[in-house]
Amino acid sequence: MKKIEGSPKNLRQLLQNTKYSIHYYQREYMWQRKHIEELIDDLTSEFLDYYKPGDTRPAVADYGTYFMGSIILAGRENAIIDGQQRLSSLTLLLMYLNNRLKAAGQSYNMIETMIFSESFGTKSFNINVDDRQECMEAIFNNVDFDVTGAGESVCNLYGRYQDIQEVFPEDISDDLLLHFCDWLAEKVFFIEIVATTEQDAHKIFVTMNDRGLSLTSTEMLKGYLLSEIKSDSVREKMNNLWKDKILLLKRDDDKGDEVFIKVWLRAHYAETIRENRAKAKNKDFDIISGSFHKWVRDEREKLGLNSSDDYELFIKKFAKFADVYELIRKAEAVFSEETKYVYYNARVNFTLQPQLLLAPICYEDPWPVITEKINLTARFIDLLIISRVINYRSVNYSTIKNFVFNVTKDIRMTDIPALKSKLQQQYINLAFVSETALYNWGLNSFTKKYIKHFLARVTGYIEEQTGVASNYCNYMNTQTKNPFEIEHIIADHYEWFTSEYSDQDDFRRWRNSVGALLLLHKSINASLNDAGYEYKLKKYCSNEGNIYTESLGDSAYQNHPQFKKFIADHNLGFRAYAKFGKTEITERTAVLVELTKLIWNDEMFR
Description:
Blueprint: E1 4-10, H1 11-15, E2 20-21, H2 33-50, E3 66-74, E4 79-82, H3 84-103, H4 111-115, E5 116-119, E6 122-125, E7 127-128, H5 133-140, H6 152-167, H7 177-187, E8 188-195, H8 198-210, H9 217-227, H10 232-249, H11 256-268, H12 284-288, H13 292-298, H14 308-333, H15 340-347, H16 353-358, H17 367-389, H18 397-411, H19 416-430, H20 435-440, H21 448-465, H22 472-476, E9 484-488, H23 504-511, E10 517-521, H24 522-527, H25 533-540, H26 547-550, H27 555-559, H28 561-570, H29 582-599
Parallel strand pairs: 2-7, 3-8
Antiparallel strand pairs: 1-8, 3-4, 5-6, 9-10
Helix pairs in contact: 2-6, 3-6, 9-13, 10-14, 14-15, 15-17, 17-19
């Protein structure tokens, strides 16, 4: 092996005006939302620990550092052998910060040179992969990008950028953006390991992952648990059981075992969580995020690990709850009527769901009881999401994790009657959706995903109640050639409506009201972009719409007797409209208020 060089470098030194390549045989960009949430939470929490109100930017020079691990590079091409996921994700974060700064009328001199650089008059991204270029340009320019037909890396990159937009904490306001950029660029460090040849780089990578240095927290936890079991035969049996479940957990995600163990330990054993204030100390919940094997060893008495039998039982519990976790993951990915609320919550990326769903389940529970507990808890999450987003309150990981943790402890290992009682009280505490909230709810960058989900649920519910299979899954599927999108009933032409709306802001507010929105296929949506209401109505009432869009015209009341019965049974104010303005928007919102009461309520807990 030729010369190897290793040196500490901060993010600016790594990325500024430096090109990296990723060879075709390397892994795709694979990070999922949970990885981005943890990265953003770790970085922003660390920064806020150091920041004190009133600090100027020069004060950041005295802040502490954050270590991101090692990256391994090879050859003249600066090929990334290990570190692609982190560097790509940090590049997405830099793009987000750059777009935020532009929107706030600010600039950070070096940020663009950390994202791309120029050679012979041509700009290209510092992490340079040809098939990702178009997507990265769209992200950099803060414009929408159609991922239909795109590769896995492109879909993940675009998805993770959207996740960053959603999970980046409000605590870092526009006034703190430059402080945070300074800290991120100068105080986030890596160890850069550079090998002369790619072959040597791979040898380094394999060595680091084959020796003691590479032992994961999962492997060290297994070693600790097995070492405390006295019987050789029992130890061998538990070792085989552990290995089988690890293979199951890692089937679709090579970090799936670690994710599950963190979720399980938090759901059943963590008692404390870090307070939401600067300089607060990490507690159970937060420590589990890192070296959870050390936490289990340190807290063995709290976990009831006192004898050889206790350690055997702990591994059996690990195996049982791994199976429950896999059931949850399947329910999140594939729609089933039996576990539909789990699926609904996953569509809006509520990543804390598995923790809450595991919390009430007991080791002794039979599978029918487990399924019922999962459904009850998932229904509460469904209510929690809607109650918050309609009031413009975030359900992002960093914002809501403390609340979710407190609910987790409240419902931990309860029987079904107690679980229903506790969830109903939690529902009451939510002070669910007021009528005023829906009248004030409108489309913006924060609410877009939730309004689409809301409209999909409403439309799907009407379909179910009128004898048609719910089309919710299709409404929310973005991977088809012609996905559904949010449609504005009112065209974006204020000049057409000056007699009704006092100014542009008034027009925009009413146009974006939830009562003035529908779901339509992307192709139809685009074709109606500049059309007037009379022309749009013909499309809404054709086979290209759905029952909710069709309800704006006469045909819904002439051709759908079950729809008319549904309206009468629930005394809903649906009617056809020849024109569409403020009065009609208000009436449609009133209908949505009543539909919300039918769809989101606490009947399951009674």
